[in-house]
Specification:
3 domains; Rossmann fold; DH_E1; 10 strands; six-stranded parallel sheet; 14 helices; two-stranded antiparallel sheet; alpha/beta; 2-oxoisovalerate dehydrogenase subunit alpha
Length: 439
């Protein structure tokens, strides 16, 4: 289909959608929304759905609905398209946004290479998605509870998670807050209200909705839950449960989808049909929805501010889709050049990169200093490399801790397993690197 035909088809869909909405708006009265023994005039008032009657059968097609628009504040050249949408952030805040994105980007590069050198077992980078992390985190309050997937390290950077905490977690040593019980990049911090990341996709989604429901029941609640997940995770059954419970229980949760185009090696056009993940919100689950340019830090910031205000005021959920592009490989277990071209990646790693866009904005404002940027990156590199050298020398937690931390009191079957392992290690201690573990 040519571009012109596509445009005409899209405009037609918009007109049809507007007519459809006018019909519904004109038909639904306040009384019609209530269950009644009297049927509304030309209006279906069923317990399962309320909609106008028609006398002609019409097969509703996906193309009958216009796609949900993408909210953008800043173009690729760093200019604000509509001055009324400029968040008017101070120079100090914008510079922190920029530095935090640079820190994350620099740390990612070094830790990725550390895995390639065999110094850590696994790593995932955040290249291309820095704006969705920093923009959303900047719009939240520290009391808001975060459930991450595994590519939201920037949220922790904004909240103050330190370089040593990131690296100690990747090495699973005695200073790791998780005590070596998680894979690398599965961060967590009680202090920063960031629930420890779990590897299985989508398990955090119904948990986040449950936490939001608990918040809703607290008198005077002034905090919300933000649950991050990828578009691939939205294909899991837990995602449906989370969406449905959030809608029906009306929980103050922001379901934040990072739609970066690829679920491991599966492109989004093979992962789902329909209008992205945002399309599931209004019609699929009856949830308010926002879709933004995830490479635009200001768009994400403005949208998250509005989303937080909405879920707290209305005590209802919101679906937030940030569209971006995963510039890096899915993880150190992936080679993305096998399923996409280097040319495609380069476009998103340059002109469409969130750091590049914010840098151009700062240049226009007279807030950017190239020497300062260079020195900052050098300083971060120095700190990361120094911390890696320190973290890899630290002991691992005592191996007995693998049995702890799940139950308040260890059940009998785990007590017996621990004793069995102790006997085994005592008999074969020369076969284990016990010197690397705390006693």
């Amino acid at each position: 289909m040519s571009f012109l035909r596509k445009s005409v088809h899209l405009m037609g869909a918009v007109v049809r959608q507007q007519k459809h909405l006018k019909v519904i708006a004109g038909t639904i009265s306040t009384t019609a929304r209530d269950y009644s023994s009297k049927p509304a005039n030309e209006f279906g008032n069923f317990p399962g759905a309320k909609a106008p009657f028609v006398s002609k059968l019409n097969l509703i097609q996906p193309e009958d609905y216009a796609p949900i628009p993408i909210y953008r504040v800043m173009d690729r050249d760093g200019y604000i398209a509509d001055e009324s949408q400029d968040p008017q952030l101070s120079r100090e805040v914008v510079e922190k946004m920029f530095r935090d994105m640079l820190l994350l980007n620099t740390m990612d590069k070094i830790l990725y290479e550390s895995q390639r050198q065999g110094r850590i077992s696994f790593y995932m980078t955040n290249f291309g998605e820095e704006a969705s992390h920093i923009g959303s985190a900047a719009a939240l309050e520290m009391r808001d509870l975060i459930y991450g997937q595994y590519r939201e390290a920037g949220v922790l950077v904004w909240r103050g998670f330190r370089i040593d905490q990131f690296i100690d977690q990747c090495y699973g040593n005695t200073d790791d807050l998780g005590r070596g019980k998680q894979m690398p990049v599965h961060y967590g911090s009680r202090e920063l209200n960031f629930v420890t990341i779990s590897s299985p996709l989508s398990t955090q989604m119904p948990q986040a909705v449950g936490a939001a429901y608990a918040m809703k029941l607290k008198p005077g609640n002034d905090a919300c839950v933000v649950c991050y997940f990828g578009e691939g995770a939205a294909s899991e059954g837990d995602a449906h449960a989370a969406f449905n419970f959030a809608a029906t229980l009306e929980c103050p949760v922001i379901l934040f989808c990072r739609n970066n185009g690829f679920a491991i090696s599966t492109p989004s056009n093979e992962q789902y049909r329909g209008d992205g993940i945002a399309g599931r919100g209004p019609m699929g689950y009856g949830i308010a929805t926002i879709r933004v340019d995830g490479t635009d830090v200001f768009a994400v910031y403005n949208a998250m501010k509005a989303a937080r205000e909405y879920v707290l005021k209305e005590n209802k959920p919101l679906v937030f889709e940030a569209l971006a592009y995963r510039v890096g490989h899915h993880s150190t277990s992936d080679d993305s050049t096998a399923y996409r071209s280097a040319e495609e990646i380069e476009v998103w790693n340059s002109v469409e990169h969130p750091i590049s866009k914010l840098k151009r904005y700062m240049v226009h404002k007279g807030w950017f200093d190239e020497t300062e940027e260079t020195e900052f990156i050098k300083d971060v590199r120095k700190k990361v490399l120094k911390q890696i050298a320190a973290s890899e020398k630290k002991l691992k937690p005592n191996w007995r801790e693998m049995f702890e931390g799940v139950y308040a009191e260890m059940p009998e079957h785990l007590v017996e397993q621990q004793k069995e392992l102790e006997r085994h290690i005592e008999a074969h201690k020369d076969s284990y690197p016990l010197k690397n573990f705390e006693k």
